[in-house]
Specification:
five-stranded antiparallel β-sheet; three-stranded parallel β-sheet; 13 helices
Length: about 300
């Protein structure tokens, strides 16, 4: 939902913006006209949707779906097929001429995902948003798609926002991580901050619930007990308080302040307060950020 807001894809109503701004290249997206938004979508910003099985039109050949995007960018019709085949090869689609004439149901899941990435890359965007790009793929194909995204980022200098619950994908692809829970940012920082210097109980729970290479055969994983909050009636305090083993009374009554716990590492958790009890989550030299300071970032 948050990523779709960047391109104003959420329907209004119920989707709306209560305030603030979304800045891209110094311009506020919320103030752009519909014409400007059409140029932005599929132009400067590409979007790879979650399920390639349902994101492609089943009644159109693959080549025609890629051509549509080129034509919308004002490319001369004489060169559209040539450019389409070129970008199909760029994303690793073998036998592009054959795939060009096929329908989506004739392609594997990994091949469909490559087509979705090709469509997102048509206009050489400066930003690509990938929504769970490896969810429906097996491990081997997932690795190929991640390698492809890394190579494209290197070749084209494109920034990537990836939405995922897969910590392995994050470790392999990302430089910075934003951890969200209950619609709120609970922690953010560099990959090493999040994986090796965790500052929020929810992030700690995520790390404890996944198997590691050194996990013993009979060793049980540690799930996060409880259920996520009802966002139609969100809690007044920290959204994770009901499931947190370290929760205090203040956590259930007031939303936590944001604390700077490292050079580029922040967390929203009352455990970092100077008066909070000592726990494994407590960081030395935690500094509370002013509300305006946190908001601006």
């Amino acid at each position: 939902m948050t990523a779709q807001c960047i391109l104003r894809l959420n329907p209004e109503p119920p989707g709306f913006f209560g305030g603030g701004e979304i800045l891209f290249d110094g311009k506020d997206i919320l103030k752009m006209s519909n014409k400007e938004m059409r140029k932005l979508r599929g132009g400067d910003i590409g979007f790879v949707f979650q399920d390639p099985m349902t994101s492609l039109n089943p009644t159109m050949r693959v080549g025609n779906q890629i051509e549509e995007v080129f034509l919308g960018r004002g490319v001369d019709k004489k060169f559209v097929k040539e450019r389409s085949l070129e970008i199909m090869k760029q994303v690793g689609i073998n036998d592009a001429e054959k795939r060009y004439r096929q329908y989506p149901h004739e392609l594997s899941g990994g091949m469909k995902q490559r087509v979705m990435i090709a469509i997102a890359l048509v206009s050489k965007p400066s930003l690509i948003i990938c929504d769970e790009p490896t969810t429906s793929l097996d491990v081997t194909i997932e690795a190929q798609i991640l390698d492809l995204l890394l190579e494209l980022r290197k070749q084209m200098g494109t920034s990537i926002i990836i939405i995922t619950h897969d910590l392995g994908v994050i470790a392999r692809l990302c430089d910075r991580v934003v951890v969200m829970y209950g619609g709120k940012v609970v922690e953010k920082g560099l990959v090493n901050d999040i994986f090796y210097d965790t500052a929020h109980p929810y992030t700690r729970g995520l790390m404890s619930s996944i198997a590691r290479l050194d996990t013993k055969k009979d060793e049980k994983l540690s799930p996060i007990e409880g259920t996520p909050p009802d966002l139609f009636a969100p809690p007044v305090g920290c959204p994770f308080a009901a499931r947190c083993e370290f929760a205090m009374d203040v956590c259930k009554e007031y939303p936590p302040e944001t604390y700077k716990v490292g050079e580029e590492h922040e967390t929203s958790c009352w455990l970092q307060h100077a008066y909070a009890p000592e726990t494994v989550m407590r960081k030395k030299n935690a500094v509370v950020l002013e509300k305006g300071e946190a908001k601006n970032e």
